[in-house]
Amino acid sequence: MTMKYEKSIRKIVVLTGAGISAESGITTFRDANGLWENHDVMEVASPEGWAANPQLVLDFYNQRRRQLKTVRPNAAHHYLKELERHYEVVVITQNVDNLHERAGSSNVIHLHGELLKVRSERNERLVYEWHDDVNIGDVAEDGAQLRPHIVWFGEMVPLLERAAEEVRTADILLVIGTSLQVYPAASLVHYIAHGNPVYIIDPNSVPAPNNPNVTVIRKTATEGVKGLRFMARSVRAFP
């Protein structure tokens, strides 16, 4: 494949999804027929699930937090960090893990929250770093129960506007490991400026936008970024 894009590149925005974390060993509900570690996602990732059984929800995310300590960033994560040597890079991730940060990426927007943070169930502005288990009775400074700092199904995505603005000002958009089926995150691909290229890396069939500047690379995250490395030697778009 030959990339012909030779516009001067200053800013690259990357939208990442479950596929990039899966290669580090993190289980995703998309790959388990709507189940996440044998749980219906609505039981553990919705306000209704929290109201019905907060202990189940806390246990679920406690397990995810413990698992995160056992995995490491993969080659795709590290490649995105390397891009910062030459460009302004903004990573917009749908993932709640910290693998991008652990690989060294310095500008990461977590659309769906962060596993290593918790917040008051009453006041979403009271957010705390948290690396251990959360238990019933652990409370915020307002006296309310702590809950995972996760954007659940049915909740607003507070960082969406910021993410959309980053895409609007991108020279290139890379989409890695996401099905482009979870909204509103999937809508971000439509904010790229007219004529600027979009590269979608995913081994599965992805509903790519009907745009002549979109290139789909049917590979895993780690294999796909290797392809970008190879293509980079013949164009100005990458080092």
Report on this structure.
It is a single chain. The chain has 239 residues and is of the alpha/beta class. It folds into two domains: 1-26 and 72-112 and 157-239, Rossmann fold (3-Layer(aba) Sandwich), CATH 3.40.50; 29-70 and 115-150, SIR2/SIRT2 'Small Domain'. Helices cover 27% and strands 20% of the residues. The protein contains eight helices and eleven strands. The chain has a six-stranded parallel β-sheet with strand order 5-4-1-9-10-11, sandwiched between helices. The longest helix is centred in the N-terminal third of the chain and has 15 residues, at 54-68. The model is unreliable at 1-5 and 230-239 (pLDDT under 50).
Q: How many individual β-strands?
A: 11
* Category by helix and strand content: alpha/beta
Biggest sheet, strands in spatial order? 5-4-1-9-10-11
Percentage of helical residues? 25-40%
Helix-strand string: EHEEHHHHEHEEEEHEEEH
Q: Segments where pLDDT lies below 50 for 5+ residues?
A: 1-5, 230-239
Distance between the termini: 17 Å
DSSP strand (E) fraction?
15-25%
CATH superfamily of the largest domain: TPP-binding domain
Major sheet attributes:
6 strands, parallel
Mean pLDDT: 88
| CATH architectural arrangement of the largest domain | 3-Layer(aba) Sandwich
Helix count from the secondary structure assignment: 8
Radius of gyration: 18 Å
